[in-house]
Design a protein that fits this description.
The protein is α+β, with helices and mostly antiparallel strands. It contains eight helices and eleven strands. It has two domains: 131 residues, Jelly Rolls; 67 residues, Orthogonal Bundle (Arc Repressor Mutant, subunit A).
Length: 221
């Protein structure tokens, strides 16, 4: 039986950089799943059920720092993969993953991953590359938080989240939580970017109208 169509994950993100035999394995064992906005993929503390790749939509990732108010630590872009850490370590899930908008994910099940690695241990390298990619994202965002202005960090998030039309499906309040700043701070920052002709703002999303203008602010320190 032919495998599934991996598009767009065969062209972008971690899976696109793996050997053809690994991608063929993913075609054969992978399953597409759809999630409505606000639907949870998994919660912190859950047992691992595999890895997930983001093909359409967006994921909001939170960490349970305090019980009543989970901290938003990442808003994932197309091509992002998650679930490797708990899967490879056999530890409970560290974070909670939720569909921020209507979302389509490719699921590589735990059972298939275990069989692959038992029979072909050289394929561990592929998953180590995924773990390194996610570590790079985490370290980069930590460095940005320590060194860059709020405006620069906002620009980087919008540039990463925007689709081909320039629309970033994130609200001002969500962006404020993602960057760890107050609502007045992010609103002031976005107003500056709008005054510069870089973006347009509305309640449910933000739109990039001049990408070079936005990029001009992304390295501010």
């Amino acid at each position: 039986m032919p495998g599934i169509d991996l598009r767009p994950l065969d062209k972008i993100g971690w899976l696109s950089g793996q050997p053809e035999d690994f991608r063929e394995w993913a075609r054969n064992v992978g399953r597409w799943k759809r999630y409505e906005a606000g639907q949870f993929v998994y919660h912190a503390g859950d047992k691992s059920d595999g890895a997930y790749g983001l093909a359409e939509g967006g994921l909001q990732i939170t960490f349970p720092l305090v019980a009543d108010e989970p901290v938003i630590i990442h808003r994932a872009e197309i091509g992002f993969w998650i679930g490797d850490a708990a899967e490879l370590s056999s530890e409970p899930r560290l974070v909670t993953v939720m569909a921020a908008v209507e979302t389509r994910l490719l699921h590589l099940p735990s059972s298939a991953i275990r069989i692959l690695l038992a029979n072909r241990p050289e394929q561990w390298r592929c998953f180590y590359q995924l773990s390194m990619s996610n570590l790079r994202v985490a370290v980069s965002q930590l460095a940005e938080a320590l060194a860059l202005t709020v405006r620069a960090r906002a620009c980087r998030r919008l540039l990463g989240l925007a689709d081909k039309q320039g629309d970033a499906a994130i609200t001002q309040d969500e962006l404020a939580k993602l960057l760890g700043v107050t609502r007045p701070t992010i609103r002031r920052c976005l107003q500056e970017l709008e005054d510069a002709g870089a973006i347009e703002t509305n309640y449910r999303k933000l739109r990039i109208v001049n990408r070079p203008a936005l990029e001009a602010f992304k390295d501010e320190q």
